Amino acid sequence: MQNVTNRTSNPFGLRPPFDRSDSGDRPAAFGYGDANADFHVIGDFPGVHGGETNGIPFTETEAGAAVQDVLREIGFASGPQDEPVLENCFWSYVHMCSLPDGERPTDEDYADLERFFDAELRAINAHILLPVGARATDHVLREYTTQRRRFDLDMPSLHARDIRGRGFMVVPVADPVEWTDGDREAIVSKLEAILASDYRQTKGVATLVG
């Protein structure tokens, strides 16, 4: 397969429409990893899942480190914690821009960045989407499946579950700060099972695998 791009950080040169970051922070935590990946891990925003200082998703926070730890066990990530090497995996956020300490994106902020997220997701064109947390899961289920109306946004029940997508398999991941006994093992086992399956056959077909 021909590579989409060999760039690791912000492979498509996206430019967010605003910069409200604190002094010393990066304006955004851009998409990062293997742009030819089959697995796309989608977080919320840098203030939750990390990357405000170094610009790399799923670093620098407890929640980000927990997600990264799972992906390291699966074999998707290696190397330094703050600048990992990713293989067959891409990381990005629904809202990439950094915000002042303690501030959360508004609905308008999320809407402003929707086109950037959507463009990158479609360019990566992964087989498996792994939204982390309620906000990312809600967005992915609404925009990339026809299933959102079937589910309450109950992350404990959605965690590590297979859901049909429009050419994608969606596997929601509860936010690590809310994990209880067995949640980490559940997502590790799910990813191992997917890797052992013919998951690439799900591309272009709304198939439930599990």
Task: Note down, in words, how this protein is organized.
This protein is of the alpha/beta class and 210 residues long. 30% of the residues lie in helices and 11% in strands. It starts with 31 loop residues before the first strand and ends in a 15-residue tail after the last helix.
Q: What's this, in brief?
A:
The chain has about 210 residues and is an alpha/beta fold. It is built from 6 helices and 8 strands, in the order ββααβββαβααββα. It starts with about 30 loop residues before the first strand and ends in a 15-residue tail after the last helix.
Mean pLDDT: 91
Largest pleated sheet: 6 strands, mixed
Q: Which descriptor suits the 3D outline?
A: globular
Oligomer: single chain
Number of helices in the DSSP assignment: 6
**Spatial order of the strands forming the largest sheet:** 1-5-2-6-8-7
Radius of gyration, whole Å: 16 Å
Task: List the defining traits of the structure above.
six-stranded mixed β-sheet, 6 helices, disordered C terminus, globular, 30% helix, alpha/beta, 210 residues
Outline the fold blueprint.
Blueprint: E1 32-33, E2 39-43, H1 46-49, H2 62-74, E3 77-78, E4 85-86, E5 89-93, H3 107-124, E6 128-131, H4 134-144, H5 155-158, E7 163-164, E8 169-170, H6 183-195
Parallel strand pairs: 2-5, 2-6, 6-8
Antiparallel strand pairs: 1-5, 3-4, 7-8
Helix pairs in contact: 2-6
